[in-house]
């Protein structure tokens, strides 16, 4: 599959626990001690990745082409096959799901700043810093910022460990993200 629109195609092979890319050994799944699958999407950007960690070394397989494209489907099937193989080789392996600590910290800080802004807006109105005709706007803006900031802080709280699932369950989850090529039966 093509990992991005302006990049060339990579040919992946998974055989007997060995993963190769374009005929070169990429990694041996028996040396993998942790894995992380993540997917992020914004208005026009999309990124999905499977990180395989062998000690301090990280092997990343990524796809920046949105869901529904044949390249993304091939990526999801490859990630599912790798997770399936890992579940056979290492049945106790837990796969981390979602973005890493850097993204969590960034989103938590954005939420915290929004929370502080909301508190300041709600406090400014009764203290006389807002005209009477704009009081409702100040309360609505402050309340919205407070709710949004609180939600972001809670969703991306840095003290909560990463969400994990067994490799076999992660495989089923990843495969569910790829649309089925066959129509559903009656």
Please give a handful of descriptors for the protein shown.
single chain, 4 helices, three-stranded antiparallel beta sheet, five-stranded mixed beta sheet, 186 residues, elongated, alpha+beta
Summed up, the helix count is 4
Give the ordered list of helices and strands. EEEEEEHEHHEH
Helix content: 40-55%
Q: How many DSSP-defined strands?
A: 8
Shape: elongated
- End-to-end separation in angstroms reads 32 Å
Strand order of the largest sheet: 6-5-4-7-8
Q: Which oligomeric form is depicted?
A: single chain
Low-confidence spans:
none
Mean pLDDT: 87
Radius of gyration: 22 Å
Classification by helices and strands: alpha+beta
Biggest sheet character: 5 strands, mixed
Strand content: 15-25%
